[in-house]
Amino acid sequence: MLRKHPERSETELNFISLFWPNLPSGIQAAYENIERDEVLLFKEDKYWVIRGYDIVRGYPKPIYRLGFPKTVKRVNAAYNDETTGKTYFFVADRYWRYDENKKSMDHGYPRKIIHDFGKIGRVDAAFQKDAVSNSLPVHPEKDNEEDTKLVEDYLSKFYTIETDSNQRGWKANAEFTAEKLQKMQRFFGLKVTGKPDTETLEMMKKPRCGVPDVGLYGVTLPGWKKTNLTYRIVNYTPDMSKEDVDKAIQKAFKVWSTVTPLIFTRIQEGIADIMIAFGTKGFNLFLVAAHEVGHALGLSHSNDQRALMFPNYAYISPSEFPLSPDDISGIQSIYGSATKTPGKRPAVPTSPNTCDPQISFDAVTTLRREVIFLKGRHLWRVYPDNSEVELELISAFWPSLPSGIQAAYENMKDQILFFKGNNFWVVSGYKVLLGYPKNINMLGFPKGVKKIDAAVCNKNTGKTDFFVGDKYWRIILLLPWIKAVEVRPYC
Questions:
Q1: Which residues, at least 6 apart from 408, have a Cβ–Cβ distance to it below 8 Å?
Q2: What is the distance between the alpha carbons of residues 298 and 1, in angstroms, rounded to a whole number?
Q3: Per-residue pLDDT at 141
Q4: According to its UniProt record, which residues of this chain constitute the active site (predicted)?
Q5: Which of 12, 128, 181, 289 is the most buried (most CB within 10 A)?
């Protein structure tokens, strides 16, 4: 989702799951009830009510609870008229009007959109600004043409459909296309209809790998006949530092070498076994690199959505690494399991015992609705709606961060500041901001301060307290600089 703040020029791009982990992707309609300070989100025949960063208990609920007939399976668009307290729901070529105070649909609805909204026949987005309602019309003919082209291109690229040069492929070769659509739907676990229905089109529109879906472990290559392979990074992306790219690529190879006898060595020039170059699309480098290395080693796509080799790109929690059982089964069917020869591989560091009553942590911080505990090279994630605690590697989230973080806190801009020694890093989401680490003197600390023991931001006052030895500093965010303004004895 994109967030636009009225007082900022930049637009923020975030995953929906970072704000509301229990929400699905592909939300189809949404509106804000300003009076109740709630946002309602719709997908298919269900809706969610959100207050702040919390989904209201008891949701999702079916949309017929709002007064829709059960034949209505989705809402195309919605907006709340703050001047009247009425909410308008657009469904195909009709609309309903809902009374937020009475919590019921008004009598006389649905009505034809075209009768009350000028020449607009259908609506796929609507909003209100300064008491003026705005709606964006649907162009069915254009949509149908675009969907037809999407199906043709997708099946041609990933399922080897042969199109008629004189007509649109999936119309001219209906039976052949239906067979390919069924194969694609079966692969992704969709309802097998052989038709380009809404669910199928949504799957086709998701970002994905460019390699065809040739089947489970029907290897793209026969596999390498040797276990010592070289790789070379031919060019770099301007979006990341070279150091971060190198670490992400190295980690991507390690994903596979951990479970096989394969050994990967980087070379700086010449022709390597695996040559790496960067395109322009911005997805998580580590995940994409690890996926593409899987192809280079001989794996095709998996239809297991938990697998790294699933064709569609989506963020996979680092708790899924090392690889899913499906990935491991595939790669070991080609190369066998990892060798046990002593001295050939470094020992894997052991994870902390989370049941140890004497365990202590190096730092604690929040990340929106999560609480994160850090110790050594590990972190624990605690969610408010989940009783389970996830143990991860810090490097799986932020490869450029060091282990042994000594202090951390979340600021008013949903950023986390991490401290180690006399350096600090600023993280936004899963990205370390450019130009970091910086020296803590930049925050206003005297040069005699060599490390921060702990830090906490009071979001009610906008002030942050830093604890150093038996003293603490209180700083106030004075954009664009941060300045230390007080020193007091630590009590």
A1: 363, 364, 365, 372, 374, 416, 417, 418, 419, 455
A2: 35
A3: 44
A4: 292
A5: 181
Q: Which residues are tagged catalytic?
A: 292
pLDDT tens-digit map of 98-136: 998 888 999 889 888 887 776 666 776 666 554 444 444
Judge whether 407 and 392 are in contact, CB under 8 Å. Answer: no
Structure tokens at 346: 């470094």
Q: Partners of 39 in the beta sheet?
A: 32, 50
β-pairing, 274-276 vs 228-233, is parallel
Q: How far is 427 from 3, CA to CA, in rounded Å?
A: 18
For 162-198, b/e burial (b = at least 16 CB within 10 A) is ebeeeeebbeebeeebeebbebbbebbebeeebebee
Q: Give, in degrees to the nearest 5, the angle at Cα 108 between 106 and 113.
A: 95
> Distance between CA 216 and CA 299 in Å, rounded?
8
Q: How far apart are CA 430 and CA 147, in angstroms?
A: 33
Please state the residue numbers annotated as binding site. 209, 239, 273, 291, 295, 301, 309, 362, 408, 455
Annotated binding site for Zn(2+): 209, 291, 295, 301, 309
- Residue ranges for the chain with pLDDT beneath 70: 1, 3-15, 17-18, 118-121, 124-145, 160-175, 207, 209-222, 278-284, 313-322, 339-358, 384-388, 430, 476-491
CA distance 431 to 327: 27
Provide the pLDDT for residue 40: 93
How would you class 265 by CB atoms within 10 Å of its CB: exposed for 0-12, middle for 13-18, buried for 19 or more? exposed
Residue 4 neighbours by CB under 8 Å, 6+ apart: 11, 12
The domains of the chain, with CATH numbers, are 2-137 (2.110.10.10), 140-205 (1.10.101.10), 228-335 (3.40.390.10), 363-489 (2.110.10.10)
Encoded amino acid at 136, one letter = L
The 3-state DSSP class for residue 222 equals coil
Instruction: Please write down the HEC assignment for all residues of 353-395.
Output: CCCCCCCCCCEEEEECCEEEEEECCEEEEECCCCCCEEEEEHH
> Phi and psi of 201, rounded to 5°?
-65, -40
Which residue from 441, 442, 440, 415 is spatially nearest to 426, judged by alpha carbons?
415
3-state helix, strand and coil shares in percent for the chain, rounded to the nearest 5: 20, 30, 50
Q: What is the chain's alpha carbon radius of gyration, rounded to the nearest angstrom?
A: 27
Question: Which residues make up each annotated binding site for Ca(2+)?
Answer: 239, 273, 362, 408, 455
Q: Running DSSP on this structure, what letter comes out for residue 173?
A: T
Q: What is the pTM of this model?
A: 0.37
Query: CA-CA distances (angstroms) from residue 4 to 14, 26, 147, 281?
Result: 11, 19, 29, 22
